[in-house]
Protein 1
Amino acid sequence: MIVATEVVHPVAEEILGPIEVPDDWRALLPEIEALIVRGGTVVTEEDLERAPRLRVIGRSGIGVDNVPVEACRARGIPVVVTPGAGAHAVAEGALALMLALVKRLPELGDAVREGRWSARDELELGDLDGATLGIVGYGRIGRELADLARGLGMRVLAYDPLVDEASTPLDVLFAESDVVSLHAPLTDETRGLVNRETLARAKPGLILVNTSRGGLVSSLDDLLEALESGRVGAVGLDVFAEEPPDVSHPLFSHPRVLVTPHALGMTRRSRERIFREMAEGVAAVLRGEEPVSRA
């Protein structure tokens, strides 16, 4: 039995055959041979213990902070990932948030709808051309974004302890960047990487964009405090520590905050690529072969 925690792209069923999407996937654990983990679903070691027939886990993306990878390895259960399939879409999404915030598109749209034509002379718009972009996490997505940013005339700094050419210290990156975009995986080392202390060192007016993992930011309170102090000029978030987030938090009503529902990497083309690569990897494991990409 193949089970998904949320609805999958039709291409996955073309490759794997029927995929169950039950309301309670855990109730089917004793029968599951392949589990496709989507969204914010968290798989625990206890789940693995209840799934004696489980042979493979497929992730529709690259993040595996919601899967106990080491426990899977110990049990011989490959965790199939799709590291490159959605990289360009996420990079484009991050760039879209930057452009929308620096050009103040949400505020200008509201002004037109509210009959405040004078906003065109009252709101100060910015430019990405000539601005400095700091990229935190210099893997596939970070590199894709760097290429797009340089094409717009931006200077690019990068921080990633695992990549030699991304050697800008984090405090320097925040102090010199006009825009910072987060693309690091969520690990014990990166959780809360952007916090009150980090933001206190930011260049005044910094635009912060996160399309990676919500847990990279210490808290919504710290973001709001930085916004209200002027240290941060605008925030764009596609991801949150808890998804869906509690939108009663005052950050969500701030005029310089733009939020999206963890959707920017799921374009039409990237969705098909992601689910095709994931399904092909799961099918390979079920045939007794090694998948192309695994965590």
Protein 2
Amino acid sequence: MSVTTPDTDQSTQPMEVIRLPRRAFLGVDIGSISTKAAVIDAENNVLAASYLWTEGDPIGAVKRVLAEIEPQLDEAVEVVSVGTTGSARELIGAVLGAQVVKNEITAHAMGTLAYHPDCHTIFEIGGQDSKIIILRDGIPVDYAMNTLCAAGTGSFLSSQARRLNIPVEDFGDYALRSKRPSKIAGRCTVFAESDLVHKAQIGHSKEDIIAGLCNAIVGNYLNNVGKGKEIEAPVVFQGGVSKNVGVVKAFAEATGHEIGVDDNGHLMGAIGVAIIAREGGEEARFEFDVRDMNFETRGGECGGCPNDCELVYVMRDGEFIDGWGNRCAKGMERVKGEQARVGT
């Protein structure tokens, strides 16, 4: 009887495994004080993140966050969609070729609901502005923003930290040690500084003064940004100031609610707009070498009609890529034509 033996060489050959790139989504939140960026996957896991100061140069700040993010990503990760939010969202959207450009309210709401679907109230205090977002059944129904005065924001606390010669990162620990918080006039930065000096001169401890500053920032927020708003639990506190446990404690005492702080609360705008880009943006591979390109912003008045619109446009390596500010298409079409002639 003949016996046929299997070809052992073929049977032991390992099968070639083809791994598809892991799709990821980039969100950038570019503000006047800080620039935040986050890369998420399809399950909202944060794969990479960066938080740094804008320093008056939004394009430069974005290039720096890209340089920080790229080394954090595995080679198998491919960014396929980009979203921008924040005060410079239009500019940075043009620079990055973003598929989605959204306001901060929408971005923060989307990011928060992804991790806290039962949230009813969002407190957000950033470096130079603050906002409140009211959510009901997963939908933003009301909001308010304060962008006119630095009192009650992160820059307010930072300026007082310099005056007290204490790192602002240590404010929370000082505040928690306070036995009798000082009453600080927090409605105006100038008045607060004067009040702070007076309290120190008459013998108030730094712990009590700092606790008083935390109470002042909360009182300012609730009396201005939160005025007339129906604050319901669950409450989620976001922004850089949410890392200050003294302010978190002050919010809890003032509202009577437990205040939730997400570990990624300072990145929530970036995460939120990344989620929006994933759900609504057309996919196209994003190349990180955009940070090596030269970008320039230009502007001027249109002059084509009595509206005299103020035009702003962005050039990449000498070529027009986007612009805004005109009420009709005439002004920007003229700019495109002029730049085309210059290029030729």
Protein 3
Amino acid sequence: MKKSRVDALLSQFSSKRILVVGDLMLDEFLWGKVSRISPEAPVPVVEVVKEEFFPGGAANVARNLIGFSKQISLLGVTGVCRHAEFLKQLLVSEGIAVDAIQSHSSYQTIVKSRVIARTQHVVRIDRESRVRLLPEHADLALKQLEEMLPSLDAVIVEDYAKGVLEADFAEKICSAVRRAGKILAIDPNPKNPLHWKGVTLIKPNRSEAFATAGIAPSDGHGDPLEDADLMEVGRVLMRKWETENLLITLGEQGVLLFHRDALPYHAPTRAREVFDVSGAGDTMIALFTLALTAGATPAEAAEIANHASGVVVGKLGTATVSPAELMASFEE
């Protein structure tokens, strides 16, 4: 893409309004150093020198968007606890609207704690309990969605299979967004096989795509456009989901885009160094969707999202990309 085209698209981002729906989490990072093994068990002793918290899950998608547009909202549920309050405080401090976040004592706020010694990920501790969204809370969420839709440009649905998205709720979200004529992007989870149909974009990673298509996974070496198994997965999922765009993330091979009216398009990775892949998929769907709202073609949106993810994987932790970093990636 020419720099002038990227500039033109980025100039439109700040006016876009996007709602992110899905499983909300709080990411905790304990940074430290290891100098000895515990006398109690054959495990390293991590001396913590820094503790950080970031919005995670669907909240991380919103965090990836807020650097480009200050009109980003979240819809989801948390428990009633200090972690929930802390998560909302973090979101508000970054300018993300939290009016559509429900907090109820019937849910547990999801917290993922990562212990990292220098750059080595030592262990992750998950605090979560999968609880189905209660009907009255789903009804309230749908009412909030309906009220917000007229002012939105797009809706992104992030499914981490933690209980917020059930079949009936997901179907009603799709129906409401389609009726409103808005862009709808889905990040699916094969552990929660919902019937996403007729949406603008679905973004699985390679392993999720193979699992959902029911095809045995392959190694995926060489040119993705020459990978017969991967191409068949794309064809199966385009038929299954009846989506306009299917974006399969391929790790070090970049992304592969299937579009209803065009040949498959491969964008090789733009990452210069890879330190941490956590959150890269969130960046991918956030920037692809935002680019579409600004008038980018699907191929252009894939390139922008691919560059953004290439920046993020070069950082440690739940990272995001800035407009300046995105432009610098294209210039390089």
